TrEMBL record, chain A:
Transmembrane domains' residue ranges: 68-89
Record keywords, A-Z: Cell membrane, Membrane, NAD, Quinone, Translocase, Transmembrane, Transmembrane helix, Transport
Signal peptide as annotated in the record: none
Described purpose of this protein according to its UniProt entry: NDH-1 shuttles electrons from NADH, via FMN and iron-sulfur (Fe-S) centers, to quinones in the respiratory chain. The immediate electron acceptor for the enzyme in this species is believed to be a menaquinone. Couples the redox reaction to proton translocation (for every two electrons transferred, four hydrogen ions are translocated across the cytoplasmic membrane), and thus conserves the redox energy in a proton gradient.
Lineage: Bacteria, Bacillati, Actinomycetota, Actinomycetes, Kitasatosporales
Organism: Streptomyces shenzhenensis
The protein's name in its UniProt record: NADH-quinone oxidoreductase subunit K
Membrane topology: Multi-pass membrane protein
GO cellular component terms, semicolon-separated: NADH dehydrogenase complex; plasma membrane
Source taxon at top rank: Bacteria
Automatic annotation (TrEMBL), chain B:
Topological relation to the membrane, as annotated: Multi-pass membrane protein
Disordered: annotated segments: 182-203
EC number: 7.1.1.-
Annotated transmembrane regions: 18-36, 43-61, 67-93, 105-123, 152-173
Listed GO MF terms: NADH dehydrogenase (ubiquinone) activity; quinone binding
Catalytic activity: a quinone + NADH + 5 H(+)(in) = a quinol + NAD(+) + 4 H(+)(out)
Keyword Membrane belongs to the record: yes
Stated family: Belongs to the complex I subunit 6 family.
Protein name listed in UniProt: NADH-quinone oxidoreductase subunit J
Compartments reported by the entry: Cell membrane
Cellular component annotations (GO), alphabetically ordered: plasma membrane
Top-level EC class as recorded in UniProt: translocase
One matching Pfam family: Oxidored_q3
UniProtKB/TrEMBL annotation, chain C:
UniProt GO BP: ATP synthesis coupled electron transport; electron transport coupled proton transport
Subcellular compartments: Endomembrane system; Membrane
Alphabetical UniProt keywords: Membrane, Transmembrane, Transmembrane helix
Coiled coil feature spans: none
Main subcellular location of this protein, as a coarse class: membrane
Organism field: Streptomyces shenzhenensis
One example GO MF annotation: NADH dehydrogenase activity
Protein name: NADH-quinone oxidoreductase subunit L
Cellular component annotations (GO), alphabetically ordered: endomembrane system; membrane
Domain NADH:quinone oxidoreductase/Mrp antiporter transmembrane: 132-403
Gene3D superfamilies named among the record's database cross-references: 1.20.5.2700
Bilayer-crossing regions: 6-24, 36-56, 76-100, 112-130, 136-157, 169-188, 208-224, 245-263, 275-296, 303-321, 327-352, 373-394, 420-443, 464-484, 496-518, 642-661
Biological classification of the source: Bacteria, Bacillati, Actinomycetota, Actinomycetes, Kitasatosporales
PANTHER family on file: NADH-UBIQUINONE OXIDOREDUCTASE CHAIN 5
Domain NADH-Ubiquinone oxidoreductase (complex I) chain 5 N-terminal span(s) in chain numbering: 68-115
Length: 126, 203, 664
């Protein structure tokens, strides 16, 4: 089989996930897109592992082993990520990423020397 | 890299290749729908299709163990987790018009540019490379198990520790704050929310 | 104790007294008066002891080097010759009198502790100048006096006159001190030492490379300190300080320092004929101009201030003809009678409640209110006018005699032209001095009109001091002109017949002419009532004086001038009266020559700074501010935007790297 097929599919999936990460508003959908990106990488790993296990002498099957590790790490990641999203949702009442803007520059701080932004930040981070 | 290159015709695809291509199209299409649909639960369901398609691709690449693991973990648990998450965060059922943020066009630009660059690079690099799928399966359970427990034992064990840590972390994070800790925390949280809303309103 | 130890203690005691007074002034007010008077008194006694031991013999020299100080060593050195011993005696006597007088004069002043400490410090600095054998140590005392005069002249800092006067005194003397410092360095470079003895040795062996330059630079500092033309303008204004301070500054310490310095380093000045001629010219202009100005002043203390300038002119004149014995002789006798004049004037101001002669001339029986001041001031004025046998006569005749000696060409060490300049100016000044002394006496004590207010007797501390000082004013000259040559260079100080007859005759003429003029004008006094007295005539003398100074300008329109038609000085001076009252408009000339250009330059610099330099600064700030605003706008807090930018950058970088790697 031509190696380009899985590799191109992998690249396209990765970029689809990328788009999702950047464009989705709901944090859980962003997590889904991250899963897409991880899977794209997995596909790459498997494809190259299969290719190299025939083309090269000894590969330790590192591609497949790493794929398994990635899957495990992805499971852990999704667990932690969901926990964070739930905690944020509980605290803020929203899981929209673009509404979590505590690090933004305050709107009223026009001068660099006004004390307002510091106070605002201190208030926002409590 | 150029082994047996002349025997393969670029315009004469084998059956495996055709199957791979078709499944790949389905997978890619499902992924696209998954990141663009306005119904949040549908997105999760389209993700199931994508992940399942990927499992089929693994099978076509003779990596059967990975394929089953994919089905088990991704389709079986991750998607279920995601669905729970959607429900717990009171995600709306049905079309939500604001599923995409204002960042959509920038995201599209970046994604398309990245896709173009990546595809151009990999096609340019691997246009004359073929995978030899004949002979013993490259990813059977036996092969994978031998490799995993001979060469990769230590990372494997370390990974189990990582999973344990993630487990504990997830529990700690999702546990409701205790009553005494909640007292001073709730007004602060409300303040932060109010500040965020003020900022939003001012903008 | 050795004489050296005693001499070291002389400046040290008042210094310690000043330090203790400043430290204890608030916590232990009971100690302030003893701490002010006793160290000065002790210093006086030690100075007497030093003078007795020195006895006019060989100079006592002693030096110790604390630490190496580079190319030209600076040593703590003493050099006590006859001049130093006697001048220290004068300083101690006047300072003690002033301290005793101040306890009465500033009886109720809340700032008396700091005042007394500063007077002690002033005295100590003058002792240092007198005894020092090293030019840098001398300079230390010289500058400490400058800063002390600033504080003391500004003692009544509530009044704007005192503030302006203290600043002016400080700045004008500093104006002279800058060239003075450069001159000292030049002198030390040529001589290879700051020690006075070594400098004089170098001069004697002709080792001085730039005598004229050095002498002229040093003269600038001397003119500033000793109030010689053209840097004399601070002195009349310094009358805004308390009277005892005026007495101290004018009689013994600050102004005497310049004359004393030239007397010490006279060979340096004699090495340059040009410097001597400049000195003579300076002395002549100072003498004649200040005497004219003194005749027109209304403020009794300003009359005395201008007379101080004139008498200092005599001293510099004596130095210009190369006779430092005469100069220091006049310095000593002048110190006695001028301290007396000022202290008596303080008593009179207190009694009359005004410092204006025009107001005093409309009070009768003022002399009966202050008999002590009346008699002692009469003595001092006679001494000032150089009437024999008072002390001023002998010292002034020694100056005029020295000038005549030089003018007739009997000596080598001074140019004859200088002698003629000094002689003629001195005789003219003798006439004018007698005239203004007579005017002062007539206006102050022979007034007609309402009776002077009676505030009871003056404090004993103030009147006793007057009699103590009256003794040397009366008798010092006659006794001293025979003794002093032993202490000094040995030249005769006895009056010569020609100058005695000329000087005394002119003084008598001046006095009689003024008396005649006063007889004619005094009838006018009754027709133009004038006068303003202090608001609190019963208060202590310091407060009365402060109020009198502050009210002079509102009452008469000027600090120095009163539109009084009964003033004999107006008749005598004619059209010159108005310019003379304002010091010949020298302040206006300075304002036009220096103050306004400096102010214009300052406003130009201000314009350049505000409009030109700041434009660049603001421009430099504006660009980063703009950029900062743009960057700040990017800080939306939206994580997705950040990641988009990050990944876009990554893609661009990756493509760029690929293109470079493939050689495209």
């Amino acid at each position: 089989m031509h190696l380009v097929y899985p590799v191109v599919l992998s690249a396209l999936l990765f970029c689809t996930g990328l788009y999702g990460v950047l464009a989705r508003r709901n944090a859980i959908l962003v997590l889904m897109s991250v899963e897409l990106m991880l899977n794209a990488v997995n596909l790459n790993l498997v494809a190259f592992d299969v290719w190299l296990s025939k083309a090269a002498a000894e590969t330790l099957h590192s591609g497949q082993a790493l794929t398994l590790f990635t899957i495990a790490i992805a499971a852990a990641e999704i667990g932690i990520g969901l926990a964070i999203v739930l905690a944020v949702h509980r605290n803020r009442g929203t899981s929209d990423i673009d509404r979590l803007r505590d690090t933004a520059e305050g709107p009223e701080s026009d001068g660099p020397d006004s004390g307002a932004p510091a106070a605002e930040k201190a208030e926002a981070t409590t | 890299m150029s082994l047996a290159a002349p025997t393969h015709g670029f315009l004469s695809p084998t059956g495996v290749e055709i199957a791979f291509l078709l499944v790949g199209l389905v997978t890619f299409g499902a992924a696209l729908v998954s990141v663009t649909t306005r119904q949040l639960v549908h997105a999760a369901l389209w993700l199931v299709v994508t992940l399942g398609g990927l499992a089929v691709e693994y099978l076509l690449l003779t990596a059967e163990f990975i394929a089953w693991v994919q089905v088990l973990i991704y389709v079986g648990s991750v998607v279920v987790l995601l669905l729970f998450g959607l429900m717990l965060t009171k995600a709306p059922i049905g079309r939500s018009p604001d599923a995409d943020s204002g960042n959509r066009w920038a995201a599209l630009t970046v994604a398309v540019a990245a896709a173009a660059a990546l595809v151009w690079v990999v096609v340019d690099a691997f246009r004359a490379t073929w995978i030899d799928l004949d002979g013993a399966a490259a990813g059977s359970t036996k092969v994978t198990g031998e490799s995993l427990f001979q060469h990769w034992v230590l990372p494997f064990e370390a990974l189990s520790v990582l999973l344990l840590a993630a487990l504990v972390g997830a529990i700690v994070l999702s546990r409701k704050a205790k009553a005494d800790a909640a007292g001073p925390e709730v007004p602060g949280a409300r303040d932060g929310q109010a500040a965020a809303e003020r900022a939003e309103g001012a903008r | 104790m050795t004489t050296t130890t005693l001499a070291v203690l002389v400046p040290l005691l008042p210094f310690l007294g000043a330090a203790a007074g400043l430290l204890l002034g608030r916590t232990a007010p009971g100690f302030v008066r003893p701490l002010a008077v006793l160290p000065t008194l002790a210093a006086l006694l030690l100075a007497v002891l030093v003078a007795v031991r020195q006895g006019g013999g060989d100079a006592i020299d002693s030096a110790t080097e604390l630490t190496p100080t580079g190319s030209v060593p600076i040593e703590l050195a003493l050099h006590i010759d006859g001049f130093a011993a006697l001048v220290a005696l004068l300083v101690g006597a006047v300072a003690t009198c002033v301290q005793i007088y101040s306890t009465g004069y500033l009886r109720d002043d809340p700032r008396y502790p700091s005042y007394a400490a500063l007077v002690s410090l002033f005295t100590s600095a003058m002792f240092l100048v007198v005894y020092s054998g090293d030019l840098i140590v001398l300079l230390v005392g010289w500058e400490v006096m400058g800063i002390c005069s600033y504080f003391l002249v500004g003692h009544y800092w509530e009044t704007p006159e005192a503030r302006a006067a203290s600043l002016k005194a400080f700045l004008v003397t500093k104006l002279g001190d800058v060239p003075f410092l450069i001159g000292l360095f030049a002198l030390a470079t040529d001589a290879g030492s700051f020690r006075i003895t070594r400098v004089l040795g170098t001069v004697a062996s002709g080792g001085l490379d730039h005598p004229t330059l050095i002498a002229l630079l040093l003269l600038a500092g001397v003119a500033g300190k000793s109030a010689q033309f053209p840097l004399h303008t601070w002195l009349p204004d310094a009358m805004a300080g308390p009277t005892p301070v005026s007495a101290l500054i004018h009689a013994a310490t600050m102004v005497a320092a310049g004359v004393y310095f030239v007397a010490r380093l006279l060979p340096v000045f004699q090495a340059s004929t040009a410097a001597m001629v400049v000195l003579a010219f300076m002395a002549a202009v100072t003498m004649a101009g200040s005497a004219l100005a003194a005749l027109a002043q209304d403020d009794i203390k300003r009359v005395l201030a201008y007379s101080t300038i004139g008498q200092l002119g005599y001293m510099t004149g004596a130095l210009a003809v190369g006779d430092r014995g005469a100069a220091v002789f006049h310095l000593l006798s002048h110190g006695a009678f001028k301290a007396l004049l000022f202290l008596a004037a303080g008593v009179i101001i207190h009694a009359a409640g005004t410092n204006s002669l025009a107001a005093m001339s409309r009070m009768s029986r003022l002399r009966d209110r202050v008999p002590d001041a009346y008699w002692t001031m009469t003595v001092a004025l006679l001494a000032l006018a150089a009437i024999p046998p008072f002390s001023g006569f002998f010292s002034k005749e020694s100056v005029l005699g020295a000038a005549e000696h030089v003018a007739t060409g009997h000596t080598e060490h001074a140019p004859g032209g200088a002698g003629w300049i000094v002689l003629l100016a001195g005789l003219l000044t003798a006439l004018l001095t007698a005239a203004y002394a007579t005017r002062l006496w007539l206006l102050a004590f022979r007034g007609r009109g309402t009776e002077a207010p009676d505030h009871g007797r003056q404090p004993l501390t103030m009147t006793v001091v007057l009699w103590v000082l009256a003794v040397p004013s009366l008798a010092f000259g006659g006794l001293a002109f025979r003794l002093l040559p032993d202490w000094f260079d040995g030249g005769s100080l006895a009056p010569t017949l020609t100058t005695s007859v000329l000087g005394t005759g002119l003084a008598l003429v001046g006095g009689l002419v003024t008396y005649g003029a006063w007889q004619r004008t005094t009838a006018l006094a009754a027709r133009t009532p004038m006068g303003a007295v202090a608001a609190h005539p019963e208060a202590d003398a310091g407060l009365v004086e402060a109020e009198a100074i502050a009210s002079h300008r509102p009452a008469y329109g000027d600090v120095a001038y009163a539109p009084d038609p009964a003033d004999p000085g107006r008749l005598l001076l004619g059209p010159l009266h108005r310019p003379a009252a304002s010091g010949f408009h020298l302040d206006a000339v300075y304002a036009a020559l220096f103050v306004r250009p400096v102010q214009a330059g300052a406003s130009l610099v201000r314009f350049l700074d505000r409009e030109v330099v700041d434009t660049y600064v603001r421009g430099a700030a504006a660009l980063p501010r703009l950029l900062g605003a743009a960057v700040r706008r990017a800080q939306t807090g939206n994580v997705q935007t950040y990641v988009s930018a990050l990944l876009a950058g990554t893609v661009v970088l990756a493509v760029a790297v690929l293109l470079v790697a493939t050689g495209a």
